[in-house]
Amino acid sequence: MATLLAIILATFSISLCVWAAVMFLYFKKETLDKITIFLVSLSAGALTGGAFLHLLPEADEKIPADELYSIVLAAFVFFFFMEKLLFWRHCHKENCAIHTFGYMNLIGDSVHNFIDGMVIAAAFLVNPGLGVATTLAIALHEIPQEIGDFGVLIHAGFGKMKALATNYAIALMVVAGGVAGYFLSFAVENIIPYLLPFAAGGFIYIAASDLMPEIRKERVLKKSVGAFLVFLLGIAIMFAVKLINH
Asked: What is the rounded average pLDDT of the residues 104-123?
């Protein structure tokens, strides 16, 4: 029961990242444009560090290496497939009150958040330290993602309050995923160790395909160097958490 409570608290804290993102939206557009690259860089570093410093080493102790890396590859392909499946439709009619891509973004975000919840549950069921590290990595990713999601909904035709309420309702899917992951661990024997490399594959895919390309677009040398250093900071945070847990 204590583990379930920890999972609920951790996943609920992830849902609160919506409000943190909204706080950033009160900045001037010029200011937000300047800091977004650093938020994305921190997120990329945290996810990369979370995969290679926490999830994969923990999984390596529990399942054979050939199975582990096959699952990482399968997860990488799965996340690529899901991204293509859930984000391919766009509305091209000028009179669309709420564009189709806004709804598709909500569907994709719901699935993403539910999987995040299951990942957090799996991590806590292995050990609390891994749960904290995984939650932190996901939280650092959620803030820039929620800023983007909010912007997508506004562009799609949602009013600000409706976009905020809808985004938060979708964010709560992470709690549902956490609870489902907890009870799934009892229904399906030995599934938890296999969720760890799956999560690692997802972290690597998101960092490599979604976040790092955004960092590479930066052409100003000073900001590029700064973004790289913040990327390293994200990895360093995950390394520090590893040292604390040990």
From this structure: 87
DSSP 8-state symbol, 151 = H
Chain-centroid distance, C-alpha 122 = 15
The token pair that represents 135 in the structure block: 């939650």
Cα–Cα distance, 246 to 15 (Å, whole number): 28
Nearest to 116 by CA among 136, 138, 131: 138
pLDDT (tens digit per residue) in 55-81: 999 999 999 999 999 999 999 999 888
Question: What are the DSSP calls for 211-242, one per residue?
Answer: IHHHHHT---HHHHHHHHHHHHHHHHHHHHHH
Coil, strand, or helix at residue 38?
helix
Locate the DSSP E strands across 52-101: none
The neighbour count for residue 91, using CB atoms within 10 Å, is 17
Tell me the longest C-alpha to C-alpha distance in the chain: 57
Look up residue 198 and give its two tokens.
């799956």
Read off the amino acid at residue 165.
A
**DSSP 3-state assignment of 97?**
coil
Q: Which residue in the block uniquely carries the two structure tokens 């299951």?
A: 118
Residue in 36, 21, 25 with CA at minimum distance from that of residue 109: 21
Calpha distance 197→192 (Å, rounded): 10
DSSP label at 158? -
178-214 residue pLDDT tens = 999 999 988 887 888 999 999 999 999 999 998 899 8
Which of 129, 117, 143, 132 lies closest to 202, judged by CA?
Answer: 117
Distance of CA 182 to the CA centre of its chain: 19
Would you say residue 237 has pLDDT above 90?
yes
